[in-house]
Structures are given as C-alpha cells and as structure tokens.
Design brief:
It holds the Pfam family PhyH. Keywords: Dioxygenase, Oxidoreductase. By secondary structure, the chain is α+β, with helices and mostly antiparallel strands. It has one domain: q2cbj1_9rhob like domain (Jelly Rolls, Sandwich), CATH 2.60.120. About 30% of the residues lie in helices and about 20% in strands. It contains nine helices and 13 strands.
Length: about 270
C-alpha cells in the first residue's frame, strides 16, 4: 500500500471543509475503490466471531443491546484490521476536516446490525471521551452495501454547535432528551442515504445523531473510527462511561495528563 494509504489521490476541498464545519457531518461518495474496502470484510467478520461479547436473549436486551453487535478496538485482535484502522489516507482526510496536524485514535468500533435489529438512539459520540478540550471526529465506513432499510445514520444538522448536551450513556434517555432538543430547536434531520463500500461518512463528535433499524434480512456491516487531536489532556470523568473507559484503557493516567497511551496511539498520515 502507498504511503498515503487507501485514498492517495483524494483531497478535501475548501468547500467540503466549510460544509463539514457548518453542518457537522460530511458524506463522501466513491472515495475508495470498493474492492479495497471489502478486502477487509473477512478479517472483521473473524474478529466479530471471536470477540463479540455474549448478549442476553433478544427479549431481555435494552435498547442499546438491541441496536447492534459491537466489538471495540478490533485493531488489537487482527493485523489485517489494524491496517485498515491505521490507514494514513483515511487519517489525512479526517485531519484536514478538523484542521489539525496530528491525530490519535480513540478507538475503533465494529457495529453490526443484525436483521431485525432496532434503531440506534440519538446520542453524541464525545460523551464517552474524558478529554479537555474535548473535540473529535468519527469516520463511518460501510463494509457492505447499506440501504436505508438496513440502518443508515441520520444527523441533526448543525447540532454540534451546541456542544455537550448532557453526560449521557447512549440509551432511551438520550433518545428522549436529545430528540426533544432537536424538535425544540427545529433542527433539520438528514439521512446519509444508501451507502456503498468506498463511501465514507465523517461527523463531528458533538453532533446529535442516530441510525435506523435494520428492516432487512441482511447483516449491516460497518466499522467506525474515532479520532481526536494529539495534545488533548485527560479530564476528570463526569459520567460512568468515561470512568469505565479510563479505568480499562488508561488506568495510569490522571486528570491533566496528556491523553497518550498504548490504546490511544498516534495515527500517522
């Protein structure tokens, strides 16, 4: 693979940067050759088969557990997945949109929506991040053809400008409260529409967003990368997710320390 990765020839235009920063999200079509993306699909499937946590029977699952099968930090389990997660071309696009020179990986997430899986509640990604300042960008990468019926994302356009709206774990409560915020502000809700392997969807870590249920008989296969600017510092955790994450990922770091550890590595680009 070249030094610039999967997307060596693709740059971000000034117009795209401005649109991302205004709307809080940006969908890019046909950025990567589809075959290059789907080449990673078997490796991701193997990680899910080996490392997805057991879940209770469907009737006993809460809304979050009904939404998807999930694996965190798949890059630590398989070198083939690591190649995708640390692709410099993808990181370069994310860095250009954020306007930063260096990025770190917060985590990757494999998010599979099983046939019949429920919707993903309204939420903000950065509610999980214990950083100061707390900024970040999320890259959503479809590994298969994703129709709207399979569970595409939707965004409340411009909602990232409100910043943190609550110390929430993704849940029925975030769905209720953030949904009320979207309605009260009269924000436009925009769906990404169908996505193909090779399409990329970026969004600001504070944008209020969710995803549709999977109304098909096919698995929705997606991997998500969360980046943050190098140089942010650890903040005292203000919700249970942040507290659990610090204990699991960076137990030796304390508030004020640089957010830098083995599981928050720099992503060169």
């Amino acid at each position: 693979m070249s030094e610039t990765g999967l997307v060596p020839e693709r740059d971000i235009s000034h117009e795209e940067i401005e649109r991302y920063r205004s709307d809080g999200y940006l969908v890019l079509r046909d950025v990567v050759a589809a075959a290059k993306v789907t080449a990673f699909r078997d490796a991701v499937r193997e990680v899910v088969a080996r490392h997805a946590e057991p879940r209770p029977p469907a009737p006993l699952r809460d809304t979050y557990a009904k939404a998807f099968v999930q694996v965190f930090n798949a890059w630590t389990f398989d070198p083939r997945v690591r190649e995708l997660v640390f692709d410099p071309g993808l990181a370069r696009l994310a860095a250009r949109l954020m306007g930063v020179s260096r990025l770190r990986l917060f985590c990757d997430e494999v998010l599979y929506k099983e046939p019949g899986a429920g919707h993903t509640p309204w939420h903000q990604d950065l509610s999980a991040c214990p950083f100061e300042p707390n900024t970040g960008i999320t890259l959503w990468i479809p590994l298969c053809e994703v129709s709207v019926e399979m569970g595409t994302m939707y965004f409340a356009r411009g909602s990232h400008e409100a910043g943190e709206l609550g110390p929430y774990d993704i849940s029925d409560e975030t769905d209720r409260d953030l949904g009320a915020f979207v309605r009260e502000r009269g924000l436009e809700c925009v769906d990404t529409g169908p996505m193909l392997p090779g399409d990329l969807s970026f969004h600001d870590g504070w944008i209020v967003h969710g995803a549709n249920e999977n109304r098909t008989g096919q698995m929705r296969e997606v991997i998500v990368l969360h980046y943050f600017p190098d140089g942010q510092r650890v903040a005292a955790p203000t919700n249970p997710t942040r507290e659990r994450l610090l204990g699991a990922v960076a137990p030796l770091l304390r508030p004020g320390d640089l957010a830098a550890c083995e599981l928050w590595p720099r992503v060169p680009w």
